[in-house]
Design brief:
Structural class: mainly beta
Shape: globular
Radius of gyration: 14 Å
Strand order of the largest sheet: 1-7-6-5-4-8
Helix content: 10-25%
Order of helices and strands: EEEHHEEEEE
Number of helices: 2
CATH class: Alpha Beta
CATH architecture: Alpha-Beta Complex
Number of domains: 1
Distance between the termini: 26 Å
Largest sheet: 6 strands, antiparallel
CATH topology: endopeptidase fold (from Nostoc punctiforme)
């Protein structure tokens, strides 16, 4: 079951080892996130993230906001290899895309927007899950 996160009020201009985006580090560690999933590129102010669209969120995470991708159900996968920092396309809700934060031996941990309406959440999927359509680099 995905873990929905709600952002507490924090000083948005200050990122430290106590905060990951707007989330207190202890909240991240208690969620389904891996303790060390945040890479330097991923430390962003999540208060500015588009959370009402899975596509806009993944484009934002991949620094590709200027591209036009359309609806997640119509995005064609361009790789079969999961990697950190790319998108995973799933069959959830007729079509969904999420951002891969870590790849394990037989699973991936993803960060996603709008799985729960208008919110960020995290979950882990098995690599052989029938929900996975492919990956987008």
């Amino acid at each position: 079951m995905p873990t929905a996160l709600s952002a507490p009020e924090v000083d948005r201009g200050r990122l430290s080892d106590q905060f990951v985006g707007p989330y207190p580090k202890e909240q991240i560690e208690q969620s389904t996130y891996l303790d060390n999933f945040i890479q330097p590129k991923l430390i962003r102010d999540y208060s500015t993230a588009p959370t009402n669209s899975c596509v806009l969120f993944v484009k934002w995470m991949m620094y590709r906001e200027d591209e036009s991708w359309g609806n997640a159900r119509y995005i064609v996968p361009n790789t079969t290899e999961p990697r950190e920092g790319i998108g995973v396309l799933t069959k959830d809700g007729g079509g969904h895309i999420a951002y891969i934060v870590s790849v394990g031996e037989d699973e991936i941990t993803i960060l996603e927007a709008n799985y729960y309406a208008g919110r960020l959440s995290s979950r882990t999927l098995k690599l052989n899950s029938p929900l996975i359509r492919g990956y987008l680099k």
